[in-house]
Amino acid sequence: MGDRRLLLETIGVLRRELKGFEPSCYSPADCTRLAEELARVEKACAAARLLAGARAVACDAHRKAGVADPAHWVARQAGTTRRQARDALATAASLEGCRATRDALLAGEVSILQAAEITKVVAELPGEEAALLEAAKAGDLTTLRDEARGRRLASIPVTALHRRQVASRRFRHWKDGLGMVCFDGALPPETGIPFVTRIEREAARLRRTAMQGGAAERFEAHAADALVLVSDGGSAAKGATDLVIVCDLFAWRRGHAHEGEPCHLVGGGPIPVELAKQLSKDAFLKVVLHDGVDIQKICHVGRKYTAELRTALELGPAPSFTGRACIDCGRSWNLQNDHDDPVAHTGPTSLSNVKPRCYDCHREKTVRDRKAGLLRAKGAARDPGRRAGAPAPANARGLPERRAGAPAPANAASHKEVGPGRGNGAPGKDPPTAAGP
Fold first, then answer.
1. Which listed site, 19, 58, 70, 375, has its alpha carbon 20 to 30 Å from 89?
2. Whole domain around residue 210: which residue ranges?
3. Looking at residue 244, what DSSP letter applies?
4. 164 lies in a domain?
5. Domain check: are 356 and 262 in the same one?
């Protein structure tokens, strides 16, 4: 048990010191350490405040303060809404069954929001606390939610999961204070992912056009315009892939998947094999049958992307194939392909060198590459010693540029693609037999 008087005195000292805090008085190194330490203190203080408030509420102390609603009293103390206060009190109660999370919370290793996510999952999946706690300590709230969602989806039989997803679809709308039309909704992955893909593709096209005219806005603003165009049937890039399914070849042939055999929508979670076959009739679908062949050998100089490499980049990292996300910030919206080692520095176009980055992270990396001398300065002419039409220099691996139309290197493809108008697939039919691992 801690010394109550010492704790209160320490809090008073900290408050007085923070009241006169001026960042310019500290060096950048000191500010870095202060930011890290204060973040832990902030999380620990928030945890202690919540637990103290929960005990006060349990003892009806809020009524002595003239407040009938406990959530109102907690919200007033924390400066939050009553809904947030109710959620926080629910988290405090659930921490009794998650002692490791409670200890980490008081130690400032996780936040209240992270603790709330962990307790929700543990209530459904006992035994997952340790793994989720490690994910929370190593990442942010988004990382933890992704991990929690993956574990939750994996625990539900895939057919039952799809029934629940379909039953949970919704749409509602309202007007805000500016008279803007706002909305909220949820769609099953097989309809939601194509819809979002078309919006993002159209938004990227609108942004490129706006940048050429010097009138680019926030990507979200272009996405709003794209939503209207897509809803009116004006989506660009007709015929482009809107939905990608990854399915184990043996599961596809068998008609159902066994443990360890993937069958899911990229970016949307697992689906039944039967649904995958039904969706394969869509003209804007790509089905990827994974047969375990190595794809690391897809590599050439220049910016040209083979169909195999584009598919591999869409799928995301093996063997999970959960889709693309910015390698720097984890964002899955407004992504661009970026060469880690720039093409101007003879970096190859390969799976190991091409990484997804959001627009902001891509721009920041370009600035860093230019400062490091890996790119030509803006406005600089191309290498004067290179003849017009001469082949590009070999990259670091000594690989020559592959001629347009030339066959891909051996073992370059790691996936078999089927679907209407693509490869050897035909609408409504099983894919052709492919080689096993």
1. 19
2. 170-231
3. E
4. no
5. yes
Q: Which of 202-211, 227-236, 292-301 has the lowest mean pLDDT?
A: 292-301
Backbone dihedral angles phi then psi of residue 245, each to the nearest 5 degrees: -110, 130
| Of the candidates 220, 271, 224, the residue with the CA atom closest to the CA atom of residue 245 | 271
Q: Which of 269, 321, 284 is nearest to 165 (CA)?
A: 269
Enumerate residues 6+ apart whose C-beta is below 8 A from 246: 262, 263, 264, 265, 266, 288, 290, 315, 321
Enter the DSSP assignment of 97. Answer: G
pLDDT in tens, 336-373: 888 888 888 888 888 888 889 988 899 899 999 888 88
Q: Which residues, including other chains, have CB under 8 Å from residue 240's CB and lie 6 or more apart? A: 201, 284
381-397 pLDDT per residue, tens: 444 444 434 444 444 34
Instruction: Note if the pTM is more than 0.85.
Output: no
Q: Is position 430 within any domain? A: no
As given in the structure block, the two tokens for residue 164 are 């629940």
For residue 376, what pLDDT is reported? 67
The CB-side HSE value for 248 (13 A sphere, CA atoms) comes to 18
Q: What token pair was written down for 225?
A: 């315009």
